[in-house]
Amino acid sequence: LLSSSFEEGHPVSYASSSPTETEQNYAQIEKEMLAIFFAVQKYHNFVYGKKFVVQSDHKPLTSIVKKPMYAISSRLQRML
User: Fold this and answer.
1) How many angstroms separate the CA atoms of 44 and 38, rounded?
2) What is the reported pLDDT for 15?
3) How far is CA 52 from the centre of its chain?
4) Single pTM value for the model
5) Transmembrane residues, as ranges (predicted)?
6) In this structure, what is the dihedral angle of CA atoms 17, 1, 47, 8, given to the nearest 10 degrees?
7) Taking the mean position of all CA atoms in its chain, how far away is CA 5?
């Protein structure tokens, strides 16, 4: 989902993808991070070089991004 602050946060674009068989076996936190990773890649042309905010209702993600990199699984490190 891409939204613009000029439009009071109304959706501008939607994107989706289906997980591969391997990705279906990921832990829930990894699936949530994968969704964010997908969105950033999908909208790279719009967000590259700009400050942007990622909003998620998955609370464990907020604690993961505050941890030092060595304390995070290598799969999550690659997505950060």
Assistant:
1) 10
2) 86
3) 12
4) 0.77
5) none
6) 180
7) 19
- Residue pair 11/2 in contact by the 8 Å Cβ criterion: yes
Per-residue model confidence (pLDDT) at position 51:
87
Give the C-alpha separation, 23 to 9, whole Å: 30
Residue ranges in the chain whose pLDDT is less than 70:
1-9
79 near 69, Cβ under 8 Å?
no
Q: Work out the number of other CB atoms within 10 angstroms of the CB of residue 33.
A: 25
Report helix, strand or coil for 7: helix
Alpha helix ranges (H) inside 1-80: 21-24, 28-42, 44-47, 59-66, 74-79
Distances (CA, A) of 48 to 29, 39, 45: 24, 12, 6
The rounded distance, in Å, linking the Cα atoms of 53 and 44 is 14
What amino acid is encoded at 57 in this protein? D
